[in-house]
Inverse folding.
């Protein structure tokens, strides 16, 4: 009996020690790193901007993830791969396709809130395939790609400064620039063209999961609530591509960034606009995006894809020229409707795709039986937006939050038509 009790004590002690290590690791992740992404000086060469941020990301990942946990993002994610996913990037024109030709077109890609440049990696690859002679640059917004604790101190003014730096980096190199945004990246694009209405370099905005306003009606409270509470959600951070925790400050800064965009006093912009989003989006207000599209963008130089699941999602309240409603569901991909996070990713993406390494199942509680089944049992899961179904199930199956767009190829074709209509 004594030995039995001793063994039980040893097991309890081991579990307590393991729990203590996990709590310590989580504490580190939810504290500012001191190595957040930089706000570059105006004259910093873009490749140096990429290199400096990559070095900071590597240092934080090594110290706060890989040194504290074995395989923090899974066995397929060595630190080099994780750094590459999270870092800003620059893709020069293809030497094979373009020889010494000077690039005339540029694409500036801007990711979303709590995301990383990886959320636009498929779009960047598709644009490179279709426009091999273009120059592409992907930004990293301060507060992102390191630890979620860095979102506690980030400010939207810094995001805007980095956006301006990104645009200006193209001035001596291209004649035509498209700003390609996902979620918060779309807000930054609109804010830039609003503040620089005479900038002839910008020829079009490509807005994926357009963030004109938050979905929550209580978003206006976030600038006040952040003084009393740091986190809306804290999670274990297993996703190599983005944060899984969400700070009150992140929500507050998003609200501050977007508060003017849905105002009736906001002046229409003259830059051509492409939008694509899901009517089921649980993060941003798609009706506000539709209203912006129909009333604030130039007629005859705009296109919007509204992905809607028949008999499940709300249709647009009104129609206008350029708005096209398309089916969201796909039985082949087990997709019921599209989420905010699915729009920009292809079905064959190795991380977020149908057969990818990562599944979004946090709604079931990390470590619960439903969480484990949601992550591991393809046959008993469907993909959809948060809030789909009841009691955490849709027609008896568990729900993975959508992480890819089954209609991605169709969307890219529409993006290409939009670009060609301007060039």
């Amino acid at each position: 009996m004594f030995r039995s009790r001793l063994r039980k004590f040893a097991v309890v002690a081991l579990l307590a020690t393991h729990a203590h290590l996990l709590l310590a690791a989580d504490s580190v992740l939810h504290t500012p790193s001191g190595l957040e992404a930089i706000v570059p000086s105006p004259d910093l060469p873009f490749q140096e901007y990429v290199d400096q941020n990559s070095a900071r990301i590597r240092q934080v990942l090594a110290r706060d993830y890989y040194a504290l946990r074995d395989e923090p993002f899974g066995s397929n994610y060595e630190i080099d791969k994780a750094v590459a996913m999270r870092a800003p990037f620059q893709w020069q024109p293809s030497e094979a396709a373009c020889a010494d030709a000077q690039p005339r077109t540029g694409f500036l890609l801007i990711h979303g809130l709590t995301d990383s440049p990886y959320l636009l990696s498929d779009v960047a690859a598709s644009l490179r395939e279709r426009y091999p002679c273009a120059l592409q640059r992907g930004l990293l917004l301060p507060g992102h790609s390191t630890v979620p604790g860095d979102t506690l101190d980030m400010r939207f003014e810094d995001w805007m400064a980095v956006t301006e730096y990104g645009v200006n980096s193209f001035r001596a190199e291209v004649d035509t620039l498209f700003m390609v945004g996902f979620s918060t990246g779309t807000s930054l694009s609109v804010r830039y063209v609003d503040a620089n209405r005479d900038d002839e370099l910008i020829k079009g905005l490509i807005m994926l999961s357009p963030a004109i306003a938050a979905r929550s009606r209580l978003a206006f409270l976030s600038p006040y609530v952040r003084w009393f509470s740091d986190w809306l959600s804290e999670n274990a951070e297993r996703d190599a591509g983005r944060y899984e925790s969400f700070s009150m400050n992140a929500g507050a800064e998003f609200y501050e960034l977007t508060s003017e965009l849905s105002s009736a006093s906001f002046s229409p912009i003259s830059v051509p606009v492409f939008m694509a989003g899901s009517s089921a989006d649980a993060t941003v207000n798609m009706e506000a995006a539709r209203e912006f599209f129909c009333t604030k963008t130039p007629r005859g130089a705009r296109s919007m894809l509204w992905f809607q699941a028949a008999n499940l999602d709300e249709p647009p309240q009104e129609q206008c020229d350029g708005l096209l409603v398309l089916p969201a569901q796909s039985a082949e991909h087990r997709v019921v409707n599209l989420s905010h996070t699915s729009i920009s990713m292809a079905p064959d993406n190795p991380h977020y795709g149908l057969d990818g390494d990562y599944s979004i199942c946090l709604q079931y509680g990390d470590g619960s039986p439903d969480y484990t089944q949601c992550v591991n049992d393809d046959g008993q899961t469907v993909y959809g937006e948060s809030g789909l179904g009841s009691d955490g199930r849709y027609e008896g199956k568990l729900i993975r939050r959508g992480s890819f767009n089954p209609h991605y190829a169709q969307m890219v074709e529409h993006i290409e038509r939009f670009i060609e209509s301007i060039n």
About this structure: The CA atoms of residues 215 and 283 lie 5 Å apart. The first helix runs from residue 2 to 29.
